[in-house]
Fold this protein.
Amino acid sequence: MRTSDFDYFLPAERIAQTPAEPRDSSRLLALHRQDAGTGRHIEHRDFRDLTEYLRPGDLMVFNRSRVIPARLHGTESRSGARVEILLARRLEPGIWQALGRPGRRLRVGAEVVVGPARVEILAAHENGLRTVRLSDEGALERLGELPLPPYIKETPTDPERYQTVYADAPGSVAAPTAGLHFTDGMLERIRKAGVITAWVTLHVGLDTFRPVRGEDIAEHRIHTEWYELPADTAGSINNARQAGRRVIAVGTTTVRTLEQVAQDAHRNGMPEIPAATGNADLFILPGHEFRLVDAMLTNFHLPRSTLLMLVSAFAGRERILAAYQEAVAREYRFYSFGDAMLIL
C-alpha cells in the first residue's frame, strides 16, 4: 500500500467552515458493506434518520473526551518575539508534548510568557515536537484558545459547537467530530428505540491534523493517544458480543479505543475484554481484523490521512473512495463540521 492510494480530490468549497445548525440537521450517507440483494450500497438521508438503521439491543459507544483550550499565544522571554504553542499530549502534571512556531525561538531552555503563566522548553525532538513545562495548568481555561483544525478559517461564535453535548473529560486537542451531530434529544430518541449507550475516553492527538507525508505507509509512526475503557462499558460490550448484538462505534477515536483493547485482550488469551487504561498506538490499515466493531458512525476525512485509512480498512478502499466521490458530487460537507457517514 502507498499513501497515494488514499488520495482524492476535494474542492475547497466542500470543506465545512461552520457547524450545521441545529446539530442534528446535517446529512447522513449510509454505506452498506453488504447490499443484502438491494443492488444499492449507498443511501442519502438526514442525520435525524439515524434511528431507522438501529435495532433494539444495539450497543452504541461514544467518546466523552472534551477539547481543551490547547493553543497558547505568548512571547519568548529573552527576545520578546511572538510565539505560538499547541499542547498536544499531557505526559504528567505540568509536563506536555507540544508543537510550536517559530521553531527557532523554542530551543531547549527558552521560556515563553503567556499572561501570568510560563512555558519552559525542556526538550526538542526530531519530529518537531517539544517537551514543555507549564507553570500553571489552571491558567489554560483563561489563556488558551480552542485548537481548531487549520482548514477551518472561521471561529465559531459559540465555542461549545466544537464540543459534543456529552463531553465531560478534558484532554483532547481536536474534537471527536462524529459526535458533534448529536443533541440531547437525539440521544434520548436512540435510547427510547432500545439502543444501549456506553462511554469511553480517548484524548485526540496530533494525527488528526497531520496527513501521512511519506509514500511508504509502513514508515509512518502514528502518535499515541491516552484512552480509558471503564468496567461498565467493558461489561456492556461483552454482554452484547455474547448475545450477538451489534457494537456501533461513534467516531474513529472510539473505533481505535475498542480495537486497541480487543487486540491487547486477544494477545493475552483473554476471551472477554477487560476494563483498560493506556496509550493507544494501534495503526488500523486495510487487512486489520476488526474484533469488536460491527458498524461505525464517522465524518468525511482528509485525503492521505490515517483516519481515511481506518475507514478503508473497515469498508474497503475502493468502496470508501467511490462513496467519497459520490458525496463530493452531491455536495456533502466535509471534515470536522461536515456531514456524517454511517458504515454498516
